[in-house]
Amino acid sequence: MVGVEPRHVEAHQKESSSIRDFVFGFGDGINTSLGLVAGVGGAAMSSNIIILAAIVAMFTGAKAMAVQNYLAVKSQRQILNSEIEREKWEMDNVPEAERREIEDVYKTKGFTGQDLEKIVNKITSDKKVWLDTMLTEELKLNLEIVGSPLKSAFRMFGAFLVGGILPIIPYFFLSGYIPLFVAIGVSLSASFVIGAIKSKIANISMLRGGLEMAGLGTGIALIGYGIGSELGSLGIIKT
Question: How far is CA 219 from CA 27, 35, 52, 195, in A?
């Protein structure tokens, strides 16, 4: 019986606009709400006021982030598309110059002589392969990493709401300073988990990534609480 050679399968992580949007949106949402509940809670406001303020801020923040992400991704795609159109024009109008650019790319990879000629001929015989090679090898462009403007906007909006609601939930069930401590604990724990997952995908230390993201939340909570507490003690905010 002839043995079948096992296939060698490598698990590679690909860059993803989805992961980028979720981590950014979730982190911004949870930190925005945490800073707000810590600040308003530090001024000794009632739970109803904290809930109202936090929910308003959560939805307006989510909308603002979604719009900004849409515009940013759309602008980036427009820039990349303009580069693609320029490459297409050059392939049609100055093909020899573009062919030499392919040669230069593979010369730097160590190919010479007939090997180099075969590779260049093979690539330039198919316009799609030729274009893709120019984009990835010469210009280092990848539209898939940039993502879709509309999808990115919706992902950002949803992730912001998911993160933003976490610090608010304790105020629906508790009162006084207890929900603030619960909100901080829940928010920092969630931030640590998301930071760790992001780091695992990037193949770096999960502990470091988790602590980094949780640390940002800690700083925001302290700043928010300090501002609210100081304004309340000075009588600027009537509690």
Answer: 13, 9, 23, 16
Q: Counting runs of H as helices and runs of E as strands, what totals does the chain give?
A: 9, 0
| Dihedral sign for Cα atoms in the order 31, 32, 37, 43 | positive
Q: Residues of 44-81 as b/e, b for ≥16 C-beta within 10 angstroms?
A: ebebeebbebbbebbeebbeebbeebbeebbebbeebe
**Rounded to an integer, what distance in angstroms lies between the CA atom of residue 136 and that of residue 143?**
10
The string of pLDDT tens digits covering residues 72-122 is 888 888 888 888 888 888 888 888 888 888 888 888 888 888 888 888 888
Are the beta carbons of 138 and 47 closer than 8 angstroms? no
Cα–Cα separations (whole angstroms), residue 120 to 25, 115, 128, 140, 193: 43, 9, 14, 18, 47
